[in-house]
Specification:
The protein has 2 helices and 4 strands; from the N terminus they run βββαβα. Helices cover 31% and strands 20% of the residues. β3, α1 and β4 form a beta-alpha-beta unit. The relative contact order is 0.21. A 4-stranded mixed sheet has the order 1-2-4-3. It has one domain. It has 88 residues and is α+β, with helices and mostly antiparallel strands.
């Protein structure tokens, strides 16, 4: 299960492993052509986040709950699409 914590910057860090190796920065203002390795090169979409989430990583959601809610909405839309197409 994921554990999310807000910090002083209203950033939410979500860890799936006890000890993270790499952080991926996600922002509502991010750019999916970026590498996501810093605040300045944050990515935006859930799709790009999943591409970069191979291995032991930690997500930094730069707008905290707002970014998390947007990512959850993206996931729900994807599930709805797959269900409509009878894929899942």
């Amino acid at each position: 299960m994921a554990n999310g914590v807000l910090d002083a910057h209203d950033e939410m860090t979500v860890s799936y492993e006890p000890k993270s190796i790499q952080q991926i920065f996600v922002s509502n203002e991010g750019d999916d052509t970026a590498d996501g390795l810093s605040r300045e090169t944050a990515i935006k979409s859930r799709k790009r986040l999943m591409q970069l989430s191979l291995g032991n990583v930690e997500w930094v959601l730069m707008e905290g709950k707002a970014t998390n809610e947007r990512l959850e909405t993206e996931a729900a839309v994807a599930v709805d699409f797959l269900q409509d197409k009878s894929i899942i």
